Amino acid sequence: MEGIKDKVAIVGMGCSQxxxxxxxxxxxxxxxxxxxAYEDAGIxxxxxxxxxxxNVRTAMRGSALAIPLKLEFIPISRxxxxxxxxxxxxxxxxxxxxxxxxxxxxxxxxxKLKDAGPERMTARYNYPDIFPQVPxxxxxxxxxxxxxxxxxxxxxxFEDGKRxxxxxxxxxxxxxMMSPKAxxxxxxxxxxxxxxxxxxxxxxxxxxxxxxDGAAAAIITRTDMATNFRDDYVLVKGIGLVSGAKxxxxxxxxxxxxxxxNVRAAEMxxxxxxxxxxxxQLGLAELHDCFTITEAITCEDLGFCPRGKIKEYVDAGxxxxxxxxxxxxxxxxxxxGHPLGASGIRMIYELYKQMQYKAGPRQRKKVRLGxxxxxxxxxxxxxxxxxxxxxxx
Length: 393
Hints:
The protein is of the alpha/beta class.
């Protein structure tokens, strides 16, 4: 099966400020991100042949982009796949370009959560008959169960497990301090994270990402056209997307210490990109750290470290900014918050800047290949997308 590898290039990107942006509308955020991408790619709005929108709001449609951007009479598709919405929109756009249907397309992910209200959101999944042990509806509770189970299965004391998660939070806050567009710019200590108010044990205040507004955008084209725009374009190397079908419901016990969807999506992306040793081959990874335990388990799922060994790797600083594999070098969801449709494109924005050596004080030295990861849904029915990006040869 022929894949996407090296057929599509990113030639422009933009990202709005993330945060509690009460003074800005959705349209403001879209324009802010997209016009940065236009300028970065050196193109005009009239050059866009088609567009894709990733968003989780109810009843959104193509006009959400067409109206603020004045995109007259071109195809615009809205993609909703929970927390994968932005990267899934990117995936759809990549396949259209790779197929030769369009030459230059726009992808935008955005969300306005702070003043939206629950009635405007579609993410309302509840399967009490299938997963009575998982209190769906409150994400902190669900992921707290994973933390408790992880500590139990790998024989970590509460103190040791909590300290491991706190180190992840400290790392991401340190990186976020150097990200001008992040929601939170504050260093924290391990002691602060350990003693923070509890949300759902073992997860405290600093173990959870924030709720924020934001938008991000990408301009993509065929690789053979990329040098018409810039020399430091970034290539799409592999994409893996899977959706769970409640397979865990067929078992007598639900495994809460890994996400099978992570494993399967990574296998797809690695196969396409030719990744056999992700820890050695990847330079950085933007992971879906909605909670610190999610980042910890995902590192194992994606093969960054063996099962049950994440604490050892965290203690050794393997995933820190200057470590062997920088994880969430911009601060991740922990510091940007999680405007659902925007997060995946924001992750790509960080890889894009790193691969152009434009990441400022958080710049990594080894950035030939990088990975983004999104996870959304609920136990046994997650959607996960993993994508691999690389510098041009």
